[in-house]
Amino acid sequence: MTQLRCNKSASYTDLNTIYAQCSGPGGLHLAEFMADKMGMEAGKRLLDVGCNRGYQTCFLAREYGVQAMGIDPWADRMEGDPMVDHLRRNAEAWGVSHLVLGQKIGVPDTHFAAGSFDFVYSTTALEMIRMLEGEEGYLACLKELWRVLKPGGVMGIGEPMHRDIPVPPDLMPHVSQSDFPWKDCFRDIHQTVDAIRQAGFEIIEADYAPEAHKWWMEYAEHDPFCKLDPEGDPKTLTVDDGRWVSFGYVIARRP
User: Fold this and answer.
1) In which element (H, E) is residue 219 found?
2) What's the CA gap between 215 and 37, in Å, rounded?
3) C-alpha triplet 191, 48, 119: angle, nearest 5°
4) I want to staple 183 with a disulfide (CB 3.0 to 4.6 A). Which of 53, 82, 147, 175 is the partner?
5) Which domains, from first to last, does the chain contain?
């Protein structure tokens, strides 16, 4: 596996702002890592699924020149307005309004025409479907992403995942709490690959991200909700110390 250098994202250094605008670990380094693995190209059409506030969407539009559609059905936990409203405001601030659109919709009910996109990108989003809708709901989302991709189109999924080991006993109380317990949301890389194959994709590459632990610790330090609740996710990550919690990615193609 080739480790990619994050040259495009290196100039974006305000991690407090980045983690306030992005969901989960990795921020813009994750967006660049995924985009390079996917072979993103200027002028191509990108669907960003679960775009959150759209910081990664805007980064991909500015740095890779893609025409991006960001979708997210959720409202912002801090301010209560739709995530896609933040996306539109961020697109203006980044100077990419001509490349970025947003819709308050989710998968599997996108209503896009079949074969609408060259790339589908989703990070730190679909793992929650597993807890809410189970494996059947997760598979339905993947099949919808297959449908809206053009033949030959590429999907990149980046998700919080766990390593292929049982939950350490001392970690179990920490990954069993909250509205979205990590033990119920996370899967290992093999389970995720199996689901993506079942949806009809060909796997190009799949692995745990080399900088997963670093990204998680950045998240623990800079995410605003982590700052408000140091006994929550930051404590979980400290107790885990890289044993069980990781971050995986799958790059796949629609045949």
Assistant:
1) helix 212-222
2) 18
3) 80
4) 175
5) 9-253 (3.40.50.150)
Least confident of 4-8, 112-116, 153-157: 4-8
User: CA-CA distance, 26 to 159, in Å (whole number)?
Assistant: 10
DSSP string, 83-99: HHHHHHHHHHHHT-TTT
Q: Which amino acid makes up residue 38?
A: M
Sequential DSSP letters for 17-33: HHHHHS-SS-HHHHHHH
Handedness of CA 84, 237, 177, 232 (dihedral sign): negative
Q: Using alpha carbons only, give the angle 135, 158, 68 rounded to the nearest 5 degrees.
A: 110
**Per residue in 166-217, pLDDT tens?**
999 999 999 998 788 999 999 999 999 999 999 999 999 999 999 999 999 9
